[in-house]
Amino acid sequence: MELPENLNKDSNGYESAEKIILRWDSTASEDARERMIFETDRQEADLYLQAVDEIQRSLSNVSISTSSNAGKNANAVDDQSKVNTTIQIAMARLEDEFRNILITHSSALETDSLLDPSSSSISTPSHHELEEDDTLSNDDSSHHDLLQLQLQHCESSDSSTYRSTSSIREVDLMPSEAICDLQAIAMRMISSGYLRECIQVYGSVRKSAIDSSFRKLGIEKLSIGDVQRLEWEALESKIRRWIRAAKVCVRILFASEKKLCEQIFERVGTDIDDACFMETVKGPAIQLFNFAEAISISRRSPEKLFKILDLHDALMDLLPDIEAVFDSKSSDSIRVQAAEILSRLAEAARGILSEFESAVLREPSRVPVPGGTIHPLTRYSGDQTTPDMEFAELEGKTPLALHLIWIIVVLQFNLDGKSKHYRDASLAHLFIMNNVHYIVQKVKGSPELREMIGDDYLRKLTGKFRQAATSYQRATWVSVLYCLRDEGLHVSGSFSSGVSKSALRERFKTFNAMFEEVHRTQATWLIPDTQLREELRISISEKLIPAYRSFLGRFRSHIESGRHPENYIKYSVEDLETAVLDFFEGYPVSQHLRKRSQ
Which cellular components does GO assign to this protein (predicted)? Predict the structure, then answer.
């Protein structure tokens, strides 16, 4: 910075410098309190900096003079006191200016500052990364844009606002002129012994900017205890949000803060820029990672497995960037915390798998689940799934996939064993159908799980529950429909009616009794899935109703021509259609079917 010529050539530089310093003493001047030097014209700011330089030189000269004439020159001591006072006034003013420049140019990251619209090399984010977070409010739209931008992993652009290293995207947080002013002030404060004040002011203002960015990213100030007290459903959305936000924080926010520290303090020393960086980001970084730490040490349960794996994978992916951003000795604690959380997340996932496997293997219950509904063991499996264990098809599977497959094979084996405790074969098939269908739906509802298990296994599972549904229908309805056959009703050698009315009456009575029993019993059975329940009812109706309508059409006249036909033809086709709607609701129905009006 070129020093103003009038001060350079002044024969009494100290007095001129002192006048400038005192003119801007906010404790003595109303005008100085209301105005900021660096918000006036450029020449005034340069003149003030030169005055500070002159005072610093004078202080150095007076200190040397005082040391060499110790005890001999009282004037030298007075001069030093006078210069010290002037320096203190100047430093107080520079501290205010430093703070004001930082505040003026400190704000939360904006989406526009991260986006390079000219970049054509934008990769497509994965389905899982772009999964909608239902907890985002309308006010968080810019936050959502910011997250999606980072997840697009834009390639290095030509924009001057970036300095890209692998996945790190450094953004210029302040204009270059403000950085130059901050650098000039910092150099003078630090050289005058005001390092601590400089770091404190810098850290205080920049932490506020980071807090504002955190709010935009949806990062809440939650203690480890707060996180562990949350219900799992609430935590799931917060985990999705955290994964998105953590990528932005490490790769953009923290990296850009580090760059800003280097820009401002690069001429002072790396130890100082490291100190300012840690003063700024250590608290926010701990706040960020405390969430993942809380999840890593929370109570284990199977439904948490895949979200824990999501956290683990995200942190594993971020670890090289964390090490790059927090590469100084002073930031060891952040690197260590991240590595320890990663290790605990891996251990938590292994523990959940082991505990679930143990629960599957040791589950001792021999009491059938009422109504053939989903067994608690299957529900406990959370997002786990089930293939048949055919080793020829397991090539290329990850260790985690193999472990899951093994657990689910055991689960199926266990469920097959439990189905044998049902005395009614139809209910046993319904039990298998319910449980395998539940697993299939869990696989379909989890993109990670579906990819891990594979579509081949999913087709096998679908085939298994459909086979169970077919087996149920055979076990229940073959005997019922057998009543509606023609065989055994025709009288041999008779060409009049050709039908044995006694056999026909017995056939109708048998059908009525069997259908009533099935209706009474199976209305109490339960299919929890609405769509599956409706599909099975439709399948039953498609077999039962046409067969009954045809039988009734062929033989109604033979019954109605005799005595008391209502004792034999008790139900209309519509009665049966209505009755089928009672099936699998899980509660008892009236002892008698609702019959047509006579």
Answer: exocyst
Give the position of tokens 């403000």. 178
Which one-letter amino acid corresponds to residue 276?
A: C
598's tokens: 């006579």
Interhelix angle 425-444/530-560, rounded to 10 degrees, is: 140
Residue 316 domain-assigned? Answer: yes
576, 516 contact by CB (below 8 A): no
In DSSP notation, 136-204 reads --GGGHHHHHHHHHHHT-PPP-S-TTEEEETTEEEE--S-HHHHHHHHHHHHHHHHTT-HHHHHHHHHH
Whose structure tokens read 């989890």? 446
State the burial class of residue 34 (Cβ atoms within 10 Å of its Cβ: 0-12, 13-18, 19+). Answer: exposed
Whether 32 and 86 map to the same domain: the answer is yes
Q: For the chain, how many residues are written?
A: 598
97: closest CA among 107, 85, 105? 105
User: Tokens 């009614």 belong to which residue?
Assistant: 424
> Could you tell me which of 508, 491, 401, 502 has the C-alpha nearest to residue 450?
401
325 and 441 housed in the same domain: no
Q: Give residue-wise pLDDT tens across range 544-562.
A: 999 999 999 999 988 888 7
Q: Which domain holds residue 505?
A: 484-596
- Looking at residue 74, its pLDDT comes to 54
Helix axis angle, 195-217 to 255-265, nearest 10°: 160
In angstroms, rounded to a whole number, what is the distance separating the alpha carbons of residues 84 and 63? 10
Confidence of residue 452 (pLDDT cuts 50, 70, 90): confident
d(CA 223, CA 570): 69
Task: Look up tokens 């041999």; give the residue.
Answer: 492
Residue pair 431/369 in contact (Cβ under 8 Å)? The answer is yes
Tell me the two tokens of residue 510.
């048998």
pLDDT at residue 147, rounded to an integer: 30
59: which residues sit within 8 A by CB, 6+ positions away? 80, 83, 84, 87
d(CA 61, CA 52): 14
Do 437 and 374 lie in one domain? The reply is yes
The token duo for 87 is: 């320096």
CATH number, domain with residue 537: 1.20.1280
- Quote the mean pLDDT of the chain: 79
Gap between the Cα atoms of 567 and 126, Å rounded: 66
Q: Could you say which DSSP state residue 499 is in? A: B
Domain count, the chain: 3
